[in-house]
Amino acid sequence: MENKKAVILDVDGTIWDSSDQVARSWSHTLTRLAGEKIVVPVAKMRSTMGLAMDDIAKIIIPEKVGAYSRSEALALCMQEENDYLVSHPGVYYPGIAGAIEAIAHDVPVYILSNCQKGYIEAMLASSRFAHFISGHACYGDNHLEKAENLAYLMKREGIAEAVYVGDTLHDEEETHKAGLPFIHASYGYGKAERPEGIAPAPSAVYPVAKQILRW
Question: Which site among 28, 36, 181, 187 is 20 to 30 Å from 148 CA-CA?
């Protein structure tokens, strides 16, 4: 498709809030591994959302958990988290399904996140919009930082122009590093400094993206 345009969405803080469910899943896994009760505070988990999984592990997981190293514990936390989210999904932001459907009728919609492999699939499993998503990529697929992953996704999918929708300053910085315009999902977890657009609610993503990409 010549001059293919697309909207690329973050997951946590943009499509849904799974911090409570992820904190509960990690607490269960770490408690089992440690042989003693470990509780991961929801607020602490929420503060790490959007970071690469290895960085989250350094904040949440001790160097040793029982007989397991941090990296071993992380691998088990991620695996069990994906399974848990299929049956205990996060909370989708009101209006996000309608926004994705509206955009998808005009231009392709993709998902890109710093999450582990399988997380996006777990999120889509309980969604009402999986069939409107043209593709996705994540840190767990290739261990690329978000800026590099945006470039990778665009090349893979033949996208000429895109806008990225995320909720944190890190999202904004990585988007601009990739040379793309950024829409701040201000209803999410974090703040932004110089976004090209602001979506105070999911319903605003469509008109703001359309104005920026001019489709």
Answer: 187
